[in-house]
Amino acid sequence: MASTFTLSGSLISTPLTAGQGESLVPVPIQEIMALAKKHYDEITLSDGLPLPVSLGGLTEVNVLFLRATGGKVRLRVTSSDGATQAIPVDPLGLFISKSVGVTAFDLTRDAAISNTVTVRIFLGQKA
């Protein structure tokens, strides 16, 4: 069933103490995309080996949201712009692209971490 992805709000940066530069630097955020398909998943990484993640029936991913709990993970994506582009996720990762979708990705737990890492995943394919 079709749905709408919405990310709205603002990013705000303020100095830790008064008098250290600008007091407020707001960046408005308003991203809306009609989705033909979406998929939720949660995976657990218990070793340092790359784990390919299922796209859950999507042919490409235009919205990718990751939330890692327990440590850093490495996201490697493949798209028409290139293969195995590595991105650290610690603890949050967000990818939105209307023109180029991700066609495959995997996750790897950071080698320095000995505990398991849980990753919550939201995938969206544009309509």
Could you explain the architecture of this structure?
The chain is an all-beta fold and 127 residues long. Helices cover 0% and strands 62% of the residues. It has one domain: Jelly Rolls (Sandwich), CATH 2.60.120.10. The chain contains no helices and 9 strands. Strand 5 and strand 6 form a beta hairpin. It is globular and about 50 Å long. The termini are close together. The mean pLDDT is 92.
- Would you report the number of β strands? 9
Choose one word for the global shape.
globular
Within CATH, the superfamily carries the name Jelly Rolls
- CATH topology value: Jelly Rolls
Please sum up the structure shown.
The chain is mostly beta strands and about 130 residues long. The protein has strands spanning about 5-15, 25-45, 50, 65-70, 75-80, 80-90, 90-95, 100-110, 115-125. The strands form two sheets. The chain has a five-stranded antiparallel beta sheet with strand order 1-2-9-4-7, with no helix packed on it.
What are its keywords?
single chain; 127 residues; Jelly Rolls
Topology:
Elements: E1 3-13, E2 25-45, E3 51-52, E4 63-69, E5 73-79, E6 82-89, E7 92-96, E8 102-109, E9 117-126
Antiparallel strand pairs: 1-2, 2-9, 3-8, 4-7, 4-9, 5-6, 5-8
